What we know:
This protein is of the alpha+beta class. It has one domain. The protein is 38% helix and 18% strand. The protein contains two helices and three strands, in the order E-H-E-E-H. The mean pLDDT is 90.
Amino acid sequence: MVKDDEDAIQSMVREFSFYQALSSLQGTVIPKCLGLYLWEGTTYLLVTRDCGSSLNSFDELSTVQSRLLAQGLRKIHALGVCHN
């Protein structure tokens, strides 16, 4: 994710703070965050590991995958983060 306008930068900083709060889940439940960087003094980059493609529909998931997703969401909530 690369942003250079003020609202987007604040959004990115907020997202980075969530990655920090969820550091114990990085690499298992959520992507590993490699950092928030300022490039050439004007552009911020939030760098995460590539975890494949986005989920288009819950219908694509097997029963096991659905259970793992729900379990991961419970872990996120247990750390005080509510994802919308």
